[in-house]
Amino acid sequence: MEHRLALLVDGENVAGRHAAELRRRTDELGSVRVCRVIGNWQGNRGLQWKAAARRWPAIEFVQRTGRAKNAADVALAIQAVDLLRDGGLDGFCLASADADFVPLAQRIHRAGLLLYGFAAGNCSRALQTQCDACFSLGECVPAAAEGSLVELIEQAILARSGDDGWANLPSVGNYLRSCTENDAVTHWGFSSLSQCLRKLGQFELQDVGTLRRVRVAA
């Protein structure tokens, strides 16, 4: 039987560039019934995650309240406890490396549910020991995991962009080359990355001095 899972993401410590990998890995573990990303989504904050949600409509954004350093942690814990109370799940996927979630992990296990951990970077050893399995989120998603050139380029932009959503074009090109055996752009028949982006029509290009930038079109 396929496990029914809830994915809770600490959006202030796990960047949106990891969204595609999170989706792929959690789909391998079971059926994700709930997908919530907790953080501060006001104004231009969290643009990487907002862009990722265009490809992953199941994402729900939860606005953390307060300005305390651990406000997102508290909001995530509340979401988890509410889901535990409601029932209907076989396990949780927790995307965070924070040891502060150890008590939450213990609560999930007391309820008899599975817990999978995902960390971008070093995960707390204390949290790792509480997880049934813990996965490290890498920086590169192989091209074979993506369904189209558009999705691969979007992933590259997310991986290399700042909070404003813009990424330097050369950096995006380097990412694409590192994730594919062949040059993805020329493989699809384009002479350059700039030409490819213009033809696809789903990206914005901007010249800042001698530097060209790109972002996913709104």
Q: Would you kindly provide a written description of the structure presented here, covering whatever features stand out?
A:
It is built from nine helices and nine strands. Residues 139-147 have low confidence and may be disordered. Strands 3-2-1-4-5-6 form a six-stranded parallel beta sheet, with helices on both faces. The chain has 218 residues and is of the alpha/beta class. Helix 2 runs antiparallel to helix 6 and helix 6 packs across helix 7 (169-179).
- How far from one another are the termini? 39 Å
β content, as a range?
15-25%
- The number of distinct helices, counting runs of at least 4 residues, comes to 9
Describe the sheet with the most strands.
6 strands, parallel
Shape: elongated
Radius of gyration from the alpha-carbon trace, in angstroms: 18 Å
The H-and-E topology, N to C, reads as: EHEHEHEHEHEHEHHHEE
The strand count comes to 9
Q: Uncertain segments of ≥5 residues (pLDDT<50)? A: 139-147
Helix-and-strand structural type: alpha/beta
Main sheet: strand order: 3-2-1-4-5-6
Helix share, percent:
25-40%
Mean pLDDT score, rounded?
85
